[in-house]
Amino acid sequence: MRRTLRCRLDPAGQIAADGAPDTWRATGADPNFRLWPPEGRKRHRGGWVRIRADLTALDRAKLTPLLYVDDGKGFRETLTIPLERDASGIDNLVRLPRRVRGLRLDPMSGVGRFRLGHVSLTYLGSLGAVSEIARRLVARLPEGERAPRQLVARLARFARGKGLSELWSDFLASARPRPVPASYKAWIDTVETPARPSVEAMRAEIAGFDSRPRISIVMPVYNTPKRWLAAAIASVQAQAYEDWELCLCDDNSSEPHIWPMLQAYAAADPRIKLHRRTRNGRISAASNDAMALATGSHLTLMDHDDAIPENALYEFVAVLNADPSVDFIYSDEDKVSIDGVRYEPFFKPDWSPEALEACMYTAHLALYRMDIVARIGGFRDACNGAQDYDFVLRYTEHVRNVVHVPKVLYHWRAIPGSTAQTMDNKDYVIAAAIRGLEDRARRTGELDFARASAFKGCFELRRKLTQRPLVSIVIPSAGRDSVVGGRSVDLLAACLDSVRGASTYESIEVVVVDNGDLRPGTRAALERHGAKRVTYADPVFNVAAKMNLGAEAAGGEVLVFLNDDITVITPDWIEAMLALLQIPGVGAVGPKLLFETGEIQHAGVSVIDATPDHVRRGYPGDDPGHFFSTVGNRNYLAVTGACVMLRRADFEAVGGFDAGFAVNYNDVDLCLRLWDRGLRIVYCAQASLHHYESRNRARTVDPEEHRRFRDRWARKLPRDPYYGEWFEALPPTFELDPARF
Q1: Tens digit of pLDDT for each residue in 357-387?
Q2: Which of 9, 110, 129, 367 could form a disulfide with 48 if both were Cys (CB 3.0 to 4.6 A apart)?
Q3: Cβ neighbours of residue 144 under 8 Å, at least 6 residues apart?
Q4: Do 132 and 70 fall within a single domain?
Q5: Alpha-helical segments (H) within 423-542
């Protein structure tokens, strides 16, 4: 008998009521409700449950609902169920463990507003679950295919193709299919599919290649379900580029079908090589044994339950033929559900070393040169679980020429228990990744710390400062007041109080560039904090000229240009930015800036169609961005001049700010000139400051300045290398925009 019970909602952590009925506000990175049974019931019970909730987002909040289950051992990451939602809320089938001591609902993983009126659970029982799953599957079919006779014929056909046990497994797993976002399906249909050549066309082109290197595909295998192992191998055999070898290592699987199945594949295809371990060695040992079989000049890695499209290896070899000096190639990727639906595409930035230290963004599919692999050694047992992350961290320390192929060439299979479905399924991955990052820092400097961020899969790495140079903070100011926190504030005085009072870095000087008309109270603040004062005498407003004047008066070898409407949030903001600036090849660093409301004002700058803009402006301050783009250090073309750090030597080498950009674009132009000299621009997610005034100030752009900027950069920047061309452009949100394809 089906019983529907309405849970009692308890806002247990980082959630506050937001005025209107059923309206809530998440105040931190881990908001959660406890779901208590209704009055009169002591506890929840296990089995098949239909969970419904009227959960909807407000103010562009990003909802990522998770159901945590306490089975007697407490709430933990290994026992979570991702919940799907549509415009009307949540309506999912879930299978709870036999023992349930508590339920917790996390609506999102950051701050934001949302509506949640109720959560109800309907206990179905086995027969009820089968009926409900069948109903949902039938509802997904076209109306003309729902007649009983057609359904029976379809079922019989599937049973002949897969076997009853596998068909039953698929049937249960399909209880919670993951829908593909409409925009991604449109991208697949209108961009990817028409652009992909046929296998015959690719092979005709391959025949004319000057170089046809053998590619060794390393695949460790352990207890893979028969269906997914067969699909993985089939995707390799379907490659248009045929000069490959598949190096398989069975890590002493206990499932009886594995070894005979692998032997049969090897017997039928001489390009498939086998090794079988006599005892289970875990993934690093199995990968090393598979790698020992490799004879190719290049190596790629593939999981035993994933798939690659027919053009994957062809795309890589085409790059090698165009430029044989390439050391490392990586592609975009997505996920695929067990029913074949592709979703969650990861359109990656071009080579971004700082992003790699924040997350394993290159991942799959990637191509490595075997001579460099031999130099660094194989996978390390100490990093089991994140062995490929540790591997690429070590590998990229030896590369000069990196190419990103902006095509989806890898499909992660999201099956129950996999990291593709949710990284929280494997907690030990986090600890292993941190070990790899710690060693990375020691090899390339001196470790300060490496730790997990609030978002699983994103990390915070910092090296110790090799020097503590004098940092000159140049503040152009008009000495004005503004309303902050509901009261009138002298912005410059408040900025100086914050910088001097809250910052932990000691070796700083402050240079204020004003118009010669500061009020007595503001002048007193300068004297109190020992700030050097420089007067800009030209009556024509020009912020670029003001900053150049301040730089001339500054004595530090490191310059920070800072707006006067800034206050400090993270006291070690200077140390965090200096730690990045000291990395060879880094030219400028900018922090995260938040509006007074806590929303993002700056988290990097994109330049699309020769028009700069701030990425994800107005999103919640704890918004993780696109694959951690907001919460992890990473490279962009530019950062804002409201707070930017760079070496004096680099500033002078490019001639400082271009005074031809009196109001707009002078900061982006400066960053682009540094980038044009081969220096990287870094967004520092570990440094946060408030930027007050700009939220309310009208954003006016001089058309002449925009024309001048376009004339200088349009040809040099046909695309932003750090921002996918299929995303929304203005504003740049990292969301797919169907209007662009």
Answers
A1: 999 999 999 999 999 999 999 999 999 889 9
A2: 129
A3: none
A4: yes
A5: 428-444, 491-502, 520-528
